[in-house]
Amino acid sequence: MTDRLQFLLKALLFAALALIIAQLYPSVNRHVQFSYEIGKPWRYDMLTAEFDFPVYKSDLEIGKERIDALNSLIPYVTIDQRTLPSMLNTLHNDSLIEPQTEEKLVATLNSVYSAGIIPATLYHDLIDRDINEVFVLVGEHVSVKTPLTALYTEKSAYETLAAIHPTDSSGLISSLVHPNVALDSITNARAREQAIEQLSLTSGIIQAGEQIINRGDIVTAEHYQVLHSLQKAYEEKNFNRTRTIEVVLAEAVFAGVFLFLFFLYLYLFRPLIFNRWRSLLCFVLLIMLFFGMAALLIKMSVSVLIIPFAFVPIVIRLFFDSRTGLFTHWIIVLLTAFMVPEPMEFIFLQVAAGMTAVSTLKDITQRSQLAKTALMIFIVYVITYCSLEIIENGMLDAEDAGNIGRLAVSSLMILTAYGFIYLLEKMFGFTSSITLIELTNVNSDFMLRFAEQAPGTFQHSLQVSNLATEAAKKINANSLLVRTGALYHDIGKLAHPEYFTENQNGGHNILNDMPLTVAAQNVINHVNDGIELARKEGLPQAIINFIAMHHGTSVTRWFYNTYANQHPGEEIDPKPFTYPGPMPDSKETGILMMADAIEAASRSLKEYSEESIDQLVEKIIGAQVADGQLANTPLSFRNIEDIKAVFKQKIKSMYHHRIAYPELKK
C-alpha cells in the first residue's frame, strides 16, 4: 500500500469519525440550554420570546387541580330494582303478620326500594367528601341528579318500615332492609377521564417579542415556569421536525474542524503515532467512547460531570506523551462542550483536570500514584468549581453540593485506569510502565529459569541493563523501557546456552568443532530464537524489538575475520556472517546495541586502565556509527557523546582496583 493511499485512508477514518459524532449529537435546541434556579440571578443576556408559546402550569399546580376536580365530581350510582321482589317474597312468607299491615308494608317497600337504599359506608364517604348529590342512572345514557337526602339509608329505611309494624318481634323488618344503591364504576371512570382531559395544562401565553427576563433579575417561581415552558416549546419544535441533512452536515463540519487539527498535529509532530494504524484506531476509540458516553447521558438528562474525562490524558500519557494526551483531551472536551448546559464552566473544569493529570502522573510505577493523582484532580475540581460558582452567583447552595459529589464520583473512577490500561495493551499491542515493571522482576519464573540455564548470559544481561539504564537517563530516553529490553535481549541463547562463551566456564567450546559459517549461523540464530521464545512467553512487541535489533545488521566479526584470514585473496560473502536485523530505530534500541557491545568487549580487556576503557568505548561505538547501525535512530552526536561518557564511567566503576587485604600474622 502506497504512502499516499495510507494517508488518504487515515483522512477518511477521521472524516468518518466526524460524521459519527454529528449523528451522536442530541436533537435539542442549544439556544435554550440555560442553567437557572429560583432565588438566583439570571446570568445571561436579556431573553425575549422568538415566537408565541404557552406557559405551562407546574406539576404541583396540575396535581392540585386534578385532585380538586376529582373530589368535586358528582358520582354516578345505580338502583338495583331486582332486590324488591326478593323482599316482597320474604314478607309474603311471614304467616304471623296481619293482612292490613302487610298491605301497608308492600306499598312502603315499593316506595323505599324505588327511591333506593344506600349502604352506610358509601353514604358516610360521600358526606366526608362534602358531596350532597348523586347522578342516578335510569337508562343507558340517562341520569337524574338526585339529592343525597332523597335516598334512604339503611337506618332511615328501617325506621320507615318499623313505624308501620312497631310490634315486630321476629326480626322481619330487619330482613326486609337491604341496600340496592351502588356506584357505577364504568360511568364514574369515564367521568374522571373527561374531567382530567378538560383540565388546562397552561396558565397563559407569551407573545413573540415579549421580554421574559433580563440579566441580573432574580429568578422567581413565575420566571422559572416561563423559562421551563420556553425550553419545552423548543424541544417540541425539534421533536416535531426531522433533522435535515444540512444540520447533520453542519455538525459534522463543526466536529471535523477539531478532528482535522488533531489529524494535522499527529501528521506533522507525531509521525511515529500517525504511521501506526493501531495507534490511530486507539485515539479514534477513545474519542468515540468518551463523547458517546457524554451524548448518552445528556439524552438521559444525567449530568456529564460524572464522566472521568481526565482519564484520557492519563492513558495517552502512559502510552505516548503528555502533549498528545492534552491535545486529545481538549478535542474531546471542546466537542462535548457544544452540547452541555454550561459549556464554559465545563471547559474550565475539564481543562484544569487534564492539566493536573499530566502534571502529577508521569508514569504509573506504584498503585499509590494513581490514587494521589485522583485526589489531586478532585481537589482541583472542587477549587475550580467553587471559584466559578462564587464568582457568578456570590454563594454556594445545595445544587452545588450535588455537583461536587458528581465530581467526586468522576475522580474515583480514575482508579479504574489499571484495568482499562491492561485492556488497551491487549487490544492495540501497547506497553505501559506497569507491564515493564512486572517484566523487570528478576524473581519471576522465566527470569529464574534464565539465570539457571544460562547463568553467564543472565549476568551479562544484568550488566547491560545497568549500563543502558544510566545512558538512557542521561539523554532523557525511556530508561524503564531500556532496562526491560536489556534484560530480555539475549533470551534466545536459552535455546543453546552451551554455544556461548559466557556459559562455558572455561570449558571446551563446541563451536570450534564446526565450520566457521555453521558456527556463525548458530550464534546468529539466537536472535530469531529469542523472538520466537518472546512471542511464546507473550512479551510485548516493544520488548521483541530489542531482541531483533540489538545486533542490527552487523557482522559476527570474530567468525568473519577468522574465515577471511583462512581464505586470503578470496572475495568473502559477508551474508552468512551477518545478523538479520533490522537496525535500531529508536533511542532506546540504539542505546542497547551500544551497551551490549561495550559490556561484551570489556570482558576481553587485559587491563582495566582509564586509557584502555576509553579506547574500547571509542572504538566500539565509532565502528557502529561508521557502519551505519545507528542511522535509523533519532540519536544526535551530542547524545552519543553523552552515552560514551556514561559508559566509560560505568565500566571504570565496574572494574576498579580493590585494596589487597594483608594476611593475619600468627
Keywords for this structure?
666 residues, mainly alpha, 4 domains, four-stranded mixed β-sheet, two-stranded antiparallel sheet, 10 strands
Shape: elongated
Instruction: Report the portion of residues in β strands.
Output: 5-15%
The number of E-state strands comes to 10
Cα-to-Cα separation, first versus last residue: 83 Å
Q: What's the average pLDDT? A: 88
Number of domains: 4
Radius of gyration over all CA atoms, rounded: 45 Å
Largest beta sheet: what is the strand line-up? 6-5-3-8
CATH class of the largest domain: Mainly Alpha
Topology (elements, then pairings):
Blueprint: H1 3-24, E1 47-48, E2 53-56, H2 59-71, E3 76-79, H3 83-92, H4 99-115, E4 117-118, H5 120-128, E5 133-137, E6 143-147, E7 152-153, H6 154-164, H7 172-175, E8 181-183, H8 185-197, E9 202-206, E10 211-213, H9 221-239, H10 245-269, H11 271-274, H12 277-299, H13 311-319, H14 322-337, H15 343-360, H16 367-393, H17 398-413, H18 417-428, H19 433-439, H20 445-453, H21 455-474, H22 479-488, H23 516-536, H24 541-549, H25 557-566, H26 587-602, H27 610-626, H28 637-654
Parallel strand pairs: 3-5, 4-7
Antiparallel strand pairs: 1-10, 2-9, 3-8, 5-6
Helix pairs in contact: 1-10, 1-12, 3-4, 4-6, 10-14, 12-14, 13-14, 13-15, 14-15, 15-16, 16-17, 20-21, 21-22, 21-26, 21-28, 22-24, 22-26, 23-24, 23-25, 26-27, 27-28
